[in-house]
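Pipeline run #58 for the internal structure catalog. This entry was flagged by the ingest filter as a single-chain record with no existing model, so it goes straight to prediction. Upstream metadata was stripped on purpose; only the residue string is passed forward. Reviewer on rotation: M.T. Logging verbosity set to normal.
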Amino acid sequence: MYRREKPGKESEEVKIQKASKQIVETAILQAVQQVSQEDEKGQNKPSSRAERQLPEGKCNTDNDK
């Protein structure tokens, strides 16, 4: 026989799903805030954030074929 949850009680799986969703939402929010802060600090720099991430001598175009 399967044990039924009482009305008004959340199953353990639902609790885990809600906690996981909250963790992911918090992580995304923190990442967005960090990127925003980095962009604010780097506004005076001439290169964009994407250019700083590319290895030296590499271009982000398909013209290098």
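catalog note: The two ends are 65 Å apart (CA to CA).
catalog note: Helices lie at 12-41, 49-53.
status: ready for reviewer M.T.
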